[in-house]
Amino acid sequence: MAETQDVVELILKDHRRMEDLFRLMRSIEADRASALAEFADLLIAHALAEEAEVYPALKRYKNIDDDEVEHGEHEHDDGNKALLHLLEVDEVGSEEWDSKLEELVEAVTHHTDEEERTILNSARENVATGRREELGAAFRGERERQLKTGCGSVDNVRRIVNS
Questions:
Q1: Is the predicted pLDDT of residue 29 greater than 90, yes or no?
Q2: Which of 1, 29, 39, 151 is most buried, judging by how many CB atoms fall within 10 Å of its CB?
């Protein structure tokens, strides 16, 4: 079976992977540092691809609320800040690390839940399948390009947060 190109399904797939990585980062039996590194790359690549390829296109649809799309962009900023705070903690698994992890989980799950209920449901209802596939291909291409750059490094996340 061919992998989907539907942008909604691709975004949802990333959201589910983020949830899996949260579970790993919370587990004392897992390689928490590796889970964080994968999560950081995924979160940054995902958000940059949405902002570059998906959100601008969705703003053109009258039945998709521009305010919700702009709110999603602001929530990316919140998630990036929470990610930076966690990446800056020296000791994985410390009390501070666990606290910063929970702040990250809260910021990201708030955003993904809201995005799924508002923006993505509206996209399913108002954007034709062919156009969702075009957006999916653009999203996937930009996401992959970002992943190849090591976009989740603490230095890059700091640059994004401070820009």
A1: yes
A2: 39
In this structure, are residues 42 and 15 in contact, taking their beta carbons and an 8 Å threshold? no
Q: Which residue reads 């930009």 in tokens?
A: 142
Which tokens sit at 42? 């995924």
Measured CA distances, 15 to 8, 21, 83, 88, 127 (Å): 11, 10, 15, 23, 20
Distance CA 83, CA 80 (A): 5
Q: Show Cβ contacts of residue 10 under 8 Å, excluding neighbours closer than 6 positions.
A: 4, 136, 139, 140
Give the SS3 label for residue 82.
Answer: helix
Is the distance from CB of 132 to CB of 8 less than 8 angstroms?
Answer: yes
Find tokens 């700091």 and name the residue.
158
pLDDT of residue 2: 58
Half-sphere exposure of 67 (CA within 13 A, CB side): 0
pLDDT of 1 reads 47
Q: How many residues does the chain have?
A: 163
